[in-house]
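The freezer alarm interrupted the setup, so I double-checked each line after restarting. Inputs confirmed:
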Amino acid sequence: MPVVKVLTDGIGEVDLTDIAIYRQRDGYRQWERAVRELQSSEVLDIAERSGLRGRGGAGFPTGKKWSFLPAGDKPRYLVCNCDEAEPGTFKDHMLLERAPHLVLEGILLGTYGIGSHHAFIYIRGEFKRGYEIFSRALEAARAAGFVGKNLFGTGYDLEVTIHRGAGAYICGEETALLNSLEGKRGEPRLKPPFPAIAGLYGMPTVVNNVETLAYLVPILRNGPEWFAAVGTERSKGYKIISISGHVRKPGNYEVPLGTTVRELIEIAGGLREGRTLRAVQPGGGSSACIFEEHLDLPYDYENMAKAGSMLGSGAFVVFDDTTDFVKCAFNLVRFFAHESCGQCTPCREGGHWLETVLHRFVEGRGLASDLAMMRRVSSTITGLNLCALGDSIEPFLKSVLQRFPEQFEARVLREVASA
Amino acid sequence: MSSAPATSDLVSLTIDGVPLQVRKGTLLVEATKMVKQEIPVYCYHTKLGPAGLCRVCLVEVEGTPKLQIGCNTPVAEGMVVRTRGENVEKGRAMVLELLLVNHPLDCPICDKGGECDLQDYAIAYGRGSSDLADPKTSKPKAVDLGPTIVLDEERCVVCQRCVRFDDLIVGERQLVLKDRGHRNMIATATGDPYRHNFTGNVTELCPVGALTSKTYRFKSRPWDLRRTETSCTQCSVGCRMNIDLRHGNVLRTMSVEGDDAVSDWWLCDRGRYNIGYIDSPERIKQPLLRRDGTFVQIGWDDAFALWAKAIRSAIDAGGPERVAAIGGGRLTNEEAYLLARTMRSLGVKNLDWRAGRQRQATPGSSGGTLLDLERAGAIVTIGESPAELAPVMDLRVRKAVRHGARLIRVAAQEAPPSMPFQDVADVAAAAAAIPANVTRVALIWDGVDNALAHAAFAALSREGRTLLTYIAGEQGNARGAEAMGMLPFAGPGYHVADAGHDFDGICDAALSGKIETLAIFGANPVLNSADGAHVRAALQAIPFLVVTELFMTETAKLASLVLPAAGAFEKSGSMVNLAGDVLPTSAALAPPDGVLGDFEIVVGLARALEIELPDSDEIERATIAAAAALPVGIAFGDERFAGAAKKDLSGEGLRLHVLHHAFAGGGTLAHDERIAALQPEPTAAFAAADADRLGIRAGDRIDLVGAGGTIGDLLAERRDTLAPGNVAFVGLRSGSAANEIAVGSRVRVENIRHSDVPVEA
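Predicted 3D structure, all chains:
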């Protein structure tokens, strides 16, 4: 089994929320080394050479993202996105609660890497326990001299501000997050300008996921080559996969990218006795399903895209032959319609319309004409939206409509259908 | 547009096969207009910029896999754009279908029907049918958003133009989008009524029938309206304005798209909504002669004959010094010119337009344009700010502040504006507050205190700095009246003339029995002057007072002869706005039977006096020349315009100030019931220290008592911007005795009645 312990090292074994224990395990050593010995540009260079890509969903190369910040005297900010809310994803939640110092050290390294003096962490409103744990960790780190003024006597200052969200999925979208952080309505901004140019309070800003930033710690410790040596050609390193659904041991598993889909199911204990696999949603609620024929594909950014889906945030949901895909589709579309900020037309109206129609299917009152309408509307709105939320409505629905049409047809009112 | 842009600023691209060059940074939605193609838009608006919300402006850009939104895609070198084609049409049709999914399709009873962008685009780009098989979402209808606007949530397409207007243009941020997803709704942030001086603009910005004016709801279909373009004469900005009539009734006024120079495409609510007076049954429709203490109706010929006789006998008995005329800012240039010319041909020199508090309207040769104003790096206001006197001009101030200008108010008494500002005590402090790197400073004055204006001009003048001056005063065509020669010391084009009395002098002369006859055109000094009691006494001392008016105003009631005059929309001519722009005014309808325009009234008088009048070509030439004349030699705060030394107003008590409000006053406001709710409640504002000393809480009711009388039952308010020792009264209206107490005199507070529920200051 390819399960590894990099970020997850020590979780479940020792109390990593205790700064003393974290420091015994080399904690904050990389932070001290970076501030004392490395230039900002060297940290950026290490991030770039490691091949680390964003672990929040889009998979954008981290070093490249940092390099988009324009040179200049303007204040610049790093924002850690801990608004984890993608259906099926629960890795950042774990890191926040079980390894808060690792998360903080990653934030500090990232902030230093972009030459900033102020980091923000935006924590999903429901993560109250994680917020409390992280707040204590930050105070402990501040007391230990890792956060604040004149760090390690070098004259370098760094402040970290914690901000709690209020439970909106859309605030995981980076520009909606920035609006929310500024105290505005949580809705995505029109791009361009991108956050690298005009982000938080109009200043150059990088928004990185919790897991992405946390990986900076082992990458600095072991060197970028160590990370880049693992994985596939363009998907380097390790990733925590949140495996859920019809498996015997759901949970977070850290693996090298490129582990096969079949291996991931086995890592999570395999299917229940006597069940057969129907589908896997490999990249969270926004991703299309893959099927038996994809079991031996390496689980990485490229292969998931090639299979018509995506790796996303690494939320891996397994469906066996007991699955009612009509209910699943309704559940997800209802989620997206409910979480739509309502700014732009296709997402606001399209999501709600599809939810209404799918609700009728769940109740067994579908119309034959609805099937074509759902395909037409869901596919046409994709690509027309202001942000990615509206584009997330189609993939799962389309893939199950195509693969399991009989489940939908069984819910069509016969008398109406023949009329 | 004076010079062609440098080639390096231009980008070449192709739109629908047509090659064109446009400035770098131009958005596709604007570039497309140049090749006479249309990109449909809901949320985009030229004055609001892109928002990317409605997604209907889809275009295809070669080399880009997804459809792009034309509203937020700038042109790029070599770009190939298609505004039509299968992909674009499919995407647009989808967006339109979705917009209609929960739309009530109540077009037959919707005010917007016939001029609705949702109707038009649905027909032009929509599918024509829908697969919708479920009930539509129901949302609140006929929501009373405030005194002017009704909201229909079901019709709303959530383009947020109204929300963005309130934020980006007005800076009030009252309107917000509430709730989320398909449940979202337009509302005020606080739940309070939507109310400021520009609310009506949202009804024009709204691309559908979601936001409608209370005054126009269910009144007409757009195709039944007959439109006349004119200039608004309610204040001295002179916004371009469309007047829409149905069956001879003025139903609404609309802004003029493309009017960048004057209105910037907006109207204030006063200009937009104060139109109900036109068909008020209280209009005077026949000349009225005072006989034995009451007015009796007489014919026009008799009226002119009596008036001419009064003038002739006055001149015969004591010379033309015994005759005087006031031609207020309600007159067109042509009317003011003809009045001044007729009077001067009789030797009459007692001519003035100033019968209120404003002393000067021409800002001198340093006068700036409205476009200059929005490019100023610092704006200094002295006297009252233009917020209530010239509301649409204040939007330029807000625009400048939004672009980084510093707003500095000298000794301000009005409430703080909804944007960053700095209050300073005097002009020296204002000069010190201007950042050193600012090269363009705008100085705005209310035209009242000439010495203050003169001092401010001197204090702010600096080498290497452009100082632009503006006078935002009380009356619409005040600057035109000045240019046409309605001044005691200057004829048309500001040419110096033999000096007569100004209005104050006329009053003083009247009180000593030296004025036999005075004609007041378009002014109500009894209500609007600084000392109403004094003016009333003076006018009562004049044996033959003639007033031309629409209504029986406080001034008209004192007249010997009242002549029914046409209103602004009933006569054509021209005006000069505060920035010196000469603007045409066009009659949209005829005056009621029996009513004459002031021009015809002067003609009638001249004929009765057997004075030869110039022909219309000569009048046109002369007014154009006078309006275009440069105010050379006139200083900002010119002492020739200054009034006589103020009466000694010292004494015990608080000093009374009367502040303007766009919806406070008599005349047209007093006779427009539909907008009664917009009139401010008569209010007295106190400095916190005075309020504490007197035991006044916000929300209390009080009386102000002065030498001339009492202003009763005022709502008390606390205002931090007021200096202790002052009390500011807002809410002048017909019938109130506000100016029976002279502005600037001392008052005491009596009869304090505490409210049960204190109102937050």
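Quick read of the result. The first helix of chain A runs from residue 19 to 24.
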